[in-house]
Amino acid sequence: MDKKLVFYDIAMRPPAEKSNSAVNPWKTRLALNFKSLPYSTNWVQLPDISNVRKSLSVPACRKFADGTDFHTLPILVDPTTSRKLGDSFDIAVYLQKQYPAGNDLFPPQSLDYVFSSDAAILIPLSKCDDGGYPQYARFNVNVDAAFTTHVGLMVQGLPFDPATAEEAKAEFVRRAGVSCWEDFAITGEQREKLSGSFRDMLGGLAKLFGGNGPFLLGERANYADLIVGAWLRMASKTLPADEWKLVREWHGGVFGRLHDALEIYAAVQ
């Protein structure tokens, strides 16, 4: 590599490197560090994401139900090849194929996890090419659907930058089709029910981590671990502290161990 890769992440409450909580950028950051690739981070404020994406000529890779574009991050720019990619799974595939040395993001394995629910998913999920790794692509979609169905537990804990918080909240309200930010509040019996569903969902996922751990393949991490780990990063920064403690302890502590084991790949460059 002649030049550093450039990674565009979502800036939350300052300092951004301490409050970064967006799932898909976390997938990319973990993958970059896992591959030991040099990169720099460009932090983008939530209201600026659409303009930044357009300025880089990176089309939206997701759409809302009404057909409008969902402009989000990450974006990765590789100055060495002039490639620009705007989806976390596509980025991981690119990193593995363009820079195959070192840790393997996609070792062969069975990823038999399927999530189904009647609950509405307000945030559009990625529909990316499988890149030659169909097991991982399906796992990515199913894990995203599973966590997104329960993301209501986390929304009000998002660490917005005070300077742009009201604008960011208004955009969330618009996307979700609710009347105000307070509509996202989930409390009392409703929260207990959703939390129980979250615990049960994680129970199904925990069955895949049946070996000696902490990773799916034991002591060797791969991109499937990073997918789950990215969601755990979001949960750790947005759930109330007592609820995050419970998540860490559920199902024999599987997800607490996974989160901690991935800390080595969580550094911000």
Q: How much helicity do the residues have?
A: 40-55%
Per CATH, the class reads: Alpha Beta
- Overall shape: it is globular
- The separation of the N and C termini measures 16 Å
Listing every helix as H and every strand as E from the N terminus to the C terminus, the arrangement reads EHHEHEEEEHHHHHH
Protein name: GST N-terminal domain-containing protein
InterPro entries: Glutathione-S-Trfase_C_sf (IPR036282), Glutathione_S-Trfase_N (IPR004045), GST_UstS-like_C (IPR054416), Thioredoxin-like_sf (IPR036249)
Domain GST N-terminal: 12-103
What is the strand and helix layout of this fold?
Blueprint: E1 5-11, H1 16-19, H2 23-34, E2 39-45, H3 49-55, E3 62-63, E4 69-70, E5 75-78, E6 83-85, H4 88-98, H5 134-148, H6 165-176, H7 188-206, H8 223-238, H9 241-261
Parallel strand pairs: 1-2
Antiparallel strand pairs: 1-5, 3-4, 5-6
Helix pairs in contact: 2-4, 2-8, 5-8, 7-9, 8-9
Structure description:
- The two termini are 16 Å apart.
- Helices cover 43% and strands 9% of the residues.
- It is built from nine helices and six strands; from the N terminus they run βααβαββββαααααα.
- With 269 residues, the protein is of the alpha+beta class.
- The strands form two sheets. A four-stranded mixed beta sheet has the order 2-1-5-6, with helices on both faces. The chain has a two-stranded antiparallel ribbon with strand order 3-4.
- The chain has one domain: Glutaredoxin.
- α2 crosses α8, α7 packs parallel to α9 and α8 runs antiparallel to α9.
